[in-house]
Amino acid sequence: MMEFCPHMMEGDNKLCCTPSQAEGLTKQIAQARHILGRCPSCFDNFAKLWCEFTCSPNQQDFVSISEMKPIEKKEGFESEYQPAEAYVNTVEYRLSTEFAEGMFASCKDVTFGGQPALRVMCTSTPCTLTNWLDFIGTQNLDLSIPINTNFILYDPAKTPQSDRSIFMNVNFTGCDQSARPVWPACSKSECNKEEYAKMINLDDGKTSGQSCNVHGIACLNIFVMLAFIGSLAVLLCVGFVFTSYDEEYTNLRQNQAGQESPKRNRIRRTGAWIHNFMENNARDIGMMAGRNPKSHFFIGCAVLIFCLPGMIYHQESTNVVDMWSSPRSRARQEETVFNANFGRPQRYQQIMLLSNREFQTNGKLYGPVFHKDIFEELFDILNAIKNISTKDAEGRTVTLDDVCYRPMGPGYDCLIMSPTNYFQGAKKNLELKKEEIVSDGDDAFDYFSSEGTTEEWMNHIAACIDQPMSQKTKSGLSCFGTYGGPSAPNMVFGRNTTNYQAANSVMMTFLVTQRTEPEIQRAELWEKEFIKFCKDYREKSPKVTFSFMAERSIPDEIEKDAKDEIVTVVIALAFLIGYVTFSLGRYFVCENQLWSILVHSRICLGMLSVIINLLSSFCSWGIFSMFGIHPVKNALVVQFFVVTLLGVCRTFMVVKYYAQLRVSMPYMSPDQCPAIVGMVMAGTMPAMFSSSLGCAFSFFIGGFTDLPAIRTFCLYAGLAVLIDVVLHCTIFLALFVWDTQRELNGRPEFFLPFKIKDLLGAYLVGRQRSTDTFMSQFFHYSFAPFLMHRITRIVTGVIFVASFIATIILSSKISVGFDQSMAFTEKSYISTHFRYIDKFFDVGPPVFFTVDGELDWHKPEVQNKFCTLPGCNDTSFGNIMNYAVEHTDQTFLSGEMYNWIDSYLEWINRKSPCCKVYVHDPNTFCSTNRNKTALDDKACRSCMDYDDIANSYPKNHVMYNRPSTEVFYKHLRHFLEDTPNMECAFGGRASFKGAISFTSRGRIQASQFMTFHKKLSMSNSSDFIKAMENARMVSRRLERSIDDTAHVFAYSKIFPFYEQYSTIMPILTTQLFITVVGVFGIICVTLGIDVKGAACAVICQVSNYFHIVAFMYLANIPVNALSATNLVMSSGILIEFSVNVLKGYACSLRPHAKDRAESTVGSIGPIILSGPVVTMTGSTLFLSGAHLQIITVYFFLLFLITIVSSAVHALIILPILLAFGGSRGHGSSEASTNGDDEPVEVGMMSGTGESHAMEEGVLNRPTLLNTTHLLDPLLKSETNELDLKAIDIITIDRSYPSTPSSLPCTSRLPRAHIEPDLRSL
């Protein structure tokens, strides 16, 4: 009484209570101390309330009996005092409003376990004075409240002086005042929340301090970038107007004639030299291959032999963490530190049962899940899971007991978070019978209860929901599980209402250890059987909807679903190979022989070209595998698609270029093959080299990111592109030479033993069929003129500018993240489990705030920086964490905060029953879990009684109540091994055994403080991203609270998966601008200092990026590793398309920019559209039928958007920009001359045909001549001599109609070399 009610012991005051009542009073007040003790003033006011009620001499003035109940006679019970006929059931307790409101004000901000302390002492939330008094005044035998107390409040200001004795009105202590001389006042965190919030100020500006940013980049930087681009655009426009648009054709004609233009400056001469150098070397390579294709073939084979053996080291990373997070990332490094100090967090296995029944209409528990047969099934499931067993590699049996986590130690059961814990895991305890409780052995009050219901098991669950920490309900059972701890309702019951009494589902969570690799292997083996059991049980569960998930479920399901989609991917690849194989050649019959259809088909060349692309990918894999750089799973399929797309573009360019040479030349003989191949290489290899270098640069820049999925894809793809160029210039070139020789010799494919006899006739027919396609005719005569029409260009330009601005605005709104459910099919059990978790459960993943660094924890000034007890710093580590947990909306933290230093200081406190040593041996710890029957409690004394250093200080000194250095570390080990019990709830074995890491000297190296995130939506990754960012914000504030004396970081198992999203947009945007600069330089130099053309390509590159991002926003596709890969791919694809357009534009000899752009669209357009665009679009369409959303969204929809957007920019936007004044180009070194030694362009139209078709600058289609009468004598007569036909081959050639030609740089062989071959034929 002196400790709890000192105000009643002053002077001659006497107590009006029996010794047993006083003992009962002090025991119950001591229990309240655990909840309200963080604020001594609050606890003192609460103690005064009950001290006055129980023992005040003036009790009769303010306490009166309202109801009596008769006492039922019980055998074996004898009252301590004179037997009575009735007992008090309800009383009236009159209080002054001044005391009641003062007491409530001192307690309303006090916290307990990270939550408001009054939350566990109130009937509703938020807690008010009325609700609080109703709760503590309502009879509840479970909480040792024996009678009903009606609190009546009186306002002293409105009560006459004579009547003031009818209510209790002792002085209260404000929370900012000290209640006792040696007691500290309440900390500001427990007293004035508003003032404390200003003191804490969690937001340090690093998370949300930027007032303006786009994609994580400050608006100022964006403004600078846009200003630079705008200035560049203005300069380009001015340059186009004054230098290009109306420039005469004279200078270029003089250049072709060998005359140096006076306007040609040094830069243009350098560009011309680069242009001619690349064409001449490309021609030499082609001619060497034409003369000796075997050497090129074997050089390519040597490259394969060097690269492919590295495939033996090839491995795919199947670790989900490795797929999404780099080992060098902050989250992974912090994970390494955490695991090194505390071991890996436990593995989770979950089962959820969702009731399909209706809500009940009566009882305390009315949720659909509270049916006895459902709980019986729950027990059956639990017992079946405990019996699951498997064999490890050594033949040993592995069960749940072998792999489970036991927080209390080997003597306790596995930690299984389940409602079955309320019945100690015993199904028989469901058969509870009502027992009338007379007295609890530890209770000094005598009382009876005659209330109860038949469904006693439900009453017990209701009591445990209200008070999970209850050691014994009125049903006679504890709420603690066999593992030794409680089960929080939010972890075992699911609901879609506001309370757990209406729960419609239950959750069972099994924790499995994974400290070492053998433990992980055993855990995975057991989990495999666990999943098998759950799948079988789900099929035969009629009473409930059954869902489940294990730790290994995600990688297992990803592997399974990937295998299920193999058929879809194979069909897409088959279409890709088939289209390329059959679209390269032309199919027509010569000499009425069906087999002749294979003469011009190029089936083998197309198939082998795709195989070369595949080998390029394999070579890239081999080289990187030799250096230990392994890709993430499924990235290789994407890489193959991209490399094939780029390779197909090159293949089509080469083959179609050759096809147009056939149009420009009257005849090709097999002997001229080296010269022909040389011309083909001169026209295609420079563009191939430029585009490949640009693509590789774009990919390699993407390889600098730390995101594994993007990094490995970019590195592998970049190297594969370069290797593919090498193989195209060696193996493919050799195959092309052989196939061309076969075609010119009139032999069919597949080594068929046939040969066309009339080579000239077949050549002339094939000459027209080579380009007389719908695509070529449409682009040349319809699309190109329409696109270059003045009105069309203006309208398209306006639309482009408007859409560019709109896409910049939309792209700033794009979100980042990844919906986890997209990785699985709708029928997957994981998808079902995720939906139920989102809908019914409201607890988030745990988060550990780790203090890494050796501190002097034994010093009170260090302890005060971490603890939350009275006397600790207001801005201590623990107080800030409590504040963060209370402000869930700001921090995304919720639930109880586990602070080991608080528990340890409470445990070792002088007045605590926890830390004691034997009197006869002070060096031996005396645990409260000892066998007390053997020794009397007086045999042990407080640990602090033997701390000579602490005892040397005055009692009012802080050091008197804090252990010395030796005692602190000596008993810290005992604290961590002490199991909590009813006598001592502060034992650290359950909660803190693994929370402290020691050095070899026994000092603390690191420690962690655990709490939980709030509920995070599984389908909304922004919740996880914000949770991580806010946790890191709190950790930075915590580090400042300890004066930066140690490193503080927040760690959760989810952080490695979501850390990438906090930096992915700045990384991608930065890489875009680096790529733009690099591509500008590469295109500018490799195309002969083509500044204007490179600038146009860069504008398209930036526009393409923002258009794709804007489409992603409209399609609700967030930015993540998968979509970022598509953005990187878009750069490479557009570079490949753009370089070919720029090359065609530069080689055109037409006088005006518009005409050159028109000829380029008409020539390059059909090749790009019918080649790579149709190839990849067609193959991706097959992916739309996949079951996985991740394939339909990221590999179908987004890839399709990427292809279409890149094609539109290359074939529409870029030509229009060039039409406004692109570079004049350097012409072609292969330019031919007509009979008058004038240069003749045989690009879009042959020189003769074009001159007749130009009318006022408009191209008209020439009339096709019927040449059948000229060809018939050659095709039908085999016996007549050639000289009898009187056919002038040159006349045939000159009268042959001009047809669309595909490449502007197409040129003729000198006619002097061709005529002798024709005449000899």
Description:
- Helix 23 packs parallel to helix 39 (1121-1147) and helix 39 (1121-1147) runs antiparallel to helix 40.
- The model is unreliable at 241-254, 256-263, 435-454 and 1227-1321 (pLDDT under 50).
- The protein contains 45 helices and 25 strands.
- Strands 8, 11, 12, 13 and 14 form a five-stranded antiparallel β-sheet that branches. Strands 15, 16, 19, 20 and 21 form a five-stranded antiparallel β-sheet that branches.
- It has 1321 residues and is α+β, with helices and mostly antiparallel strands.
- It is found in: Membrane.
- InterPro entries: HMGCR/SNAP/NPC1-like_SSD, NPC1_MLD, NPC1_N, SSD.
- The chain crosses the membrane at residues 222-245, 297-314, 566-589, 601-624, 636-655, 676-701, 713-738, 791-810, 1064-1087, 1094-1115, 1167-1188, 1194-1220.
Descriptors:
SSD domain-containing protein; 50% helix; disordered C terminus; 25 strands; 8% strand; SSD; transmembrane helix; alpha+beta; 5-stranded antiparallel sheet; membrane; 45 helices; 1321 residues
Q: Compute the CA-based radius of gyration.
A: 43 Å
> Strand pairing plus helix content: what structural class?
alpha+beta
N-to-C terminal Cα separation, in Å? Answer: 128 Å
The main sheet comes to: 5 strands, antiparallel
Treating each run of at least 4 consecutive H or I residues as one helix, how many helices?
Answer: 45
Pfam family, one: NPC1_N
Subcellular location: Membrane
Family: Belongs to the patched family.
Transmembrane segments: 222-245, 297-314, 566-589, 601-624, 636-655, 676-701, 713-738, 791-810, 1064-1087, 1094-1115, 1167-1188, 1194-1220
